[in-house]
Write a structure and sequence with these properties.
Blueprint lengths: L4 H6 L3 E4 L7 E4 L1 H5 L1 H15 L6 E5 L2 H13 L2 E7 L7 E8 L2 E8 L8 E9 L3 H12 L3 E10 L5 H7 L4 E6 L4
Parallel strand pairs: 3-4, 3-7, 7-8, 8-9
Antiparallel strand pairs: 1-2, 4-6, 5-6
Helix pairs in contact: 3-4
Length: 181
């Protein structure tokens, strides 16, 4: 039995220095996914948090949010909606542009992915500048959905994204952070 699942998860996140650019400390979650015990502990943290909440659908952000979000949706017996990078969805879409740590990007949702009044859990792997999560939440709201919470494995608080997400009125849950590291 794990006494501290948060430390257990945090200790298994790999830091890759200077990737994708010099000075960036990339927090790599792939070790969490590769080990079956660690992956189960991670998924269970989220499932136990949301199993008693009224959620209609789980939305996962391209691409690592797909991995976690689809498994959580399955475990909660809910549908899964992918929030994709621009140009990846084949049907009519709504789009939102946002700023990244090192550039800008656009995310899209199928125009029929979320229905008015649906309660949506939004999942991504980490919160850095907050742009991706805020853009995804805006898309969900455009379609009439309510983001009941945004969730991620990692918060990088020094980049200010978690504060920006919460300032947009989006409740936020993260498993662990890398403040001052």
């Amino acid at each position: 039995m794990l006494l501290d699942p948060v430390s257990y998860i945090r200790d298994r996140i790999r830091t890759v220095p200077d990737w994708p650019l010099a000075g960036v400390q990339f927090r790599d979650i792939t070790p969490l996914l590769q080990d079956p015990k660690t992956f189960r502990v991670l998924v269970d943290l989220f499932v136990h948090r949301y199993m008693d909440q009224q959620i209609d659908v789980v939305a996962g952000v391209d691409a690592r949010g797909f991995i976690l979000g689809s498994v959580i949706a399955y475990e909660l017996n809910r549908g899964f909606v992918p929030v994709r990078k621009k140009g990846k969805l084949p049907f009519t879409t709504v789009a939102e542009e946002y700023e990244l740590e090192y550039g800008s990007a656009t995310v899209e949702l199928h125009s029929d992915a979320i229905h008015a009044g649906q309660r949506v859990l939004l999942i991504d792997d980490l919160v850095a500048t907050g742009g991706t999560m805020i853009a995804a939440a805006k898309l969900i709201r455009k379609l009439g959905g309510e983001v009941i919470e945004a969730a991620a494995i990692v918060d990088l608080p020094e980049l200010g994204g978690s504060q920006l997400v919460q300032a947009q009125g989006i409740p936020l849950f993260t498993v662990c952070d890398f403040a001052g590291h």
